[in-house]
């Protein structure tokens, strides 16, 4: 998949949104859930899904493995936050 123009801008925004979520640019319980969801998207190896992390990175010519490695320290806090919140009763 090769992206150009508006498609490229959309893919860049998708990738930036996931990175911002993982790095916790925002705060609060919804931000923690976004971080968790972004981490799952980044960790998944789904080359057949059109908007998977690996496909988006490939289209943008970003090294998916290197980006995952760079973000991995931020993933450690995400695991604890989501686990604690998942144990809370739903309202």
Structure overview:
With 91 residues, the chain is an all-alpha fold. The chain has one domain. 69% of the residues lie in helices and 0% in strands. It starts with 5 loop residues before the first helix and ends in a 5-residue tail after the last helix. The C terminus is likely disordered.
Defining key terms:
91 residues, mainly alpha, 4 helices, 69% helix, disordered C terminus
The assembly state of the depicted protein chains is: single chain
- Secondary-structure element order, N to C: HHHH
Low-confidence stretches at least 5 residues in length (pLDDT < 50)?
A: 79-91
Mean pLDDT: 84
Shape: globular
Q: Structural class, from helix and strand content?
A: mainly alpha
Largest sheet: none
Number of helices: 4
What percent of residues are in strands?
under 5%
Number of self-contained structural domains: 1
- As a whole number of angstroms, the C-alpha radius of gyration is 14 Å
N- and C-termini, Cα separation:
42 Å
Number of strands: 0
Percent helix range? 55-70%
Q: Can you lay out the helices and strands and say which pair or pack?
A:
Elements: H1 6-22, H2 29-43, H3 53-60, H4 64-86
Helix pairs in contact: 1-2, 1-3, 2-4
Short description:
The chain is mainly alpha-helical and about 90 residues long. Helices cover about 70% and strands about 0% of the residues.
